Amino acid sequence: RDAALYPVVLDSEGTVLSLPPIINGSKSRITLDTKNVFIECTATDLTKANIVLDTVVAMFSEYAARPFTVEPVTVSYVDAAGGVARSYVTPQMYTRKETAKVDFVNSLIGISVESSKMADLCNRIQLGPARIIPDGQTGEDVLEVTVPPTRSDILHAVDVAEDVGIAHGYNNIVRTVPGTCTVGREQPLNQLGDLLRDEIGRAGYTEVLTHGLCSTADNFTALGRPVTAAVKLSNPANVEYEVVRTTLLPGLLKTLQHNKSMSFAGGFKLFEISDVVLPDSECVVSETVVGARNSRRVCATFTGPSSGFEIIHGLVDRIMTLCEVAPEAGYVASSGSAYKSVYCKEGWEYTIRELRGDGSYFPGRGAE
Fold it and tell me: Which residues contact 346 (CB under 8 A, 6 or more apart)?
């Protein structure tokens, strides 16, 4: 509404034919006696405009006096001085070639169709003329089809295979048992995480799910830790999403910040089991060094009128027991008669000692 200029379509006499998005004017209205139809397409994207124009013109041309013929129009762009800056002829009626290996098409659909029949199927579904050509390197049969102006949806060999499947008939595809027998199951790490979630929830903790991205200040400075290497976003939406978290603690602390209205008289327990991302120059995924790796972590907090250190301490012992990791003999000796022997994996042991040099915790109030 506030634009300085508006698009308008005029004829050679200067009569307004169309003022987009108003489609028609009185002079250009179509009646039963109309013989000449001018088809125009206005858009903000020239490529999409040409696709739409080609499709509409191709469909209308079926009803022309000479079927499947169209009178082209030269579109000229003028500069400020009124001179022609550039021009081109429309509709372009653009056609192109697309190829797909015959073996690939058969394998993807699950059929076994000869090369010649496959080309015939493509001719029947408006992808002709189609032909079979040999691959220059392997000598395999390659199906080459002609993509008409009305089939802008054909972008890849998979699209060609889909049309062959439609032409062959989905109901004609014989059901077969897969050549390999596989049994789907949960990833072991995810299964362990789900089992721990159940047990920690039974201990009275509420699970939360926080953002994987956070600010550098939240991930390091606010925790009293020096700023170290982390996976950074090159174009973060705002300062709250600068880096991928290297610890789950900021998310739980922010959850507490936004739930200060809750009652803390009996203690407020939160936990999260999720991934953090750590820089790792040797991590390889699909033969590519990605420079980082995911690490599954569990984080829990207790907030209440008392320190609650013994509550978190007990949760750690419970998690280790569930994971069948035994405490070291010295740790058991310091626990007095509180420790009850349970089954643990041989050679798997843990101990707890004072954490030093971590600014996130008060001196003497942190353990590792």
Answer: none
How far is residue 138's CA from residue 57's CA, in Å, rounded to a whole number?
Answer: 41
Dist. CA 80–CA 103, nearest whole Å: 56
CB-based burial label for 340 (10 Å; 0-12, 13-18, 19+):
exposed
Give residues with Cβ within 8 angstroms of 40, minimum separation 6: 9, 18, 53
Residue 20, pLDDT > 80, answer: no
Query: Cα separation of 134 and 157, whole Å?
Result: 16
At residue 79, φ and ψ (nearest 5 deg) are -90, -175
Instruction: Render the burial of 35-67: b for 16+ CB within 10 Å, e for the rest.
Output: eeeeebbeeeeeeeebbbbbbbbbeebeeeeee
Write down the pLDDT at residue 159.
93
CA 326 – CA 313 distance, rounded (Å): 15
First to last CA, the chain: 65
Provide the token pair at 238. 């705002």
pLDDT tens figures, 201-243: 999 999 999 999 999 999 999 999 999 999 999 888 888 899 9
**Phi and psi torsions of 322, nearest 5°:** -65, -35
Does the predicted model carry a pTM greater than 0.85?
A: no
Provide the token pair at 89.
């002829």
The one-character DSSP state at 242 is: S
Task: Of 244-248, 269-273, 329-333, give the lowest mean pLDDT range.
Answer: 329-333
Task: Tell me if residue 23 falls in helix, strand or coil.
Answer: coil
Helices and strands (H, E) in the chain, number of each type: 9, 16
3-class secondary-structure state, position 230: coil
Rounded CA gap, 113 and 106, in Å? 7
Enter the tokens of residue 184.
């789907």
Q: Which of the 8 DSSP states describes residue 19?
A: B
pLDDT at 342 over 90: no
The pair of three-digit structure tokens given for residue 223, joined into one six-digit string: 């925790």
What is the predicted pLDDT for the residue at 132? 93
- pLDDT by residue (tens digit) across 39-80? 888 888 888 999 999 999 999 999 998 999 999 999 898 888
